[in-house]
Amino acid sequence: MVGVTITKHETGSTGEYHAHVADSDQIGRLTWTARGGVHYAEHTLVPQEIGGRGVAGRLVEAMVADARENGFKIGPVCSYVAVAFQRHPEWADVKG
């Protein structure tokens, strides 16, 4: 896979993780809203131009790592995130 850099953008109780792919100006996004110590992963959006490269998975992995580091839970509202949690039972510690 081409290099992917994940950044976090937060404004109050909402935010996004952005996936920047080295050979593209397109950005993948995972959006969330925080309530009561849980960050609800609402949408995973990956443009077709950067699809099929594992970008969505990297976004979820970044959110899981952030949850472990900063002590919040993840509520998988987005269907992609919900399936990712089913595939990764080792993430149960951060599921809200």
TrEMBL record:
Residues 9-96 form the N-acetyltransferase domain. The keyword tRNA-binding does not apply. This is Acetyltransferase. GO terms for molecular function: transferase activity. Keywords: Transferase. Signal peptide: none annotated. Pfam families: Acetyltransf_CG (PF14542). The keyword Zinc does not apply.
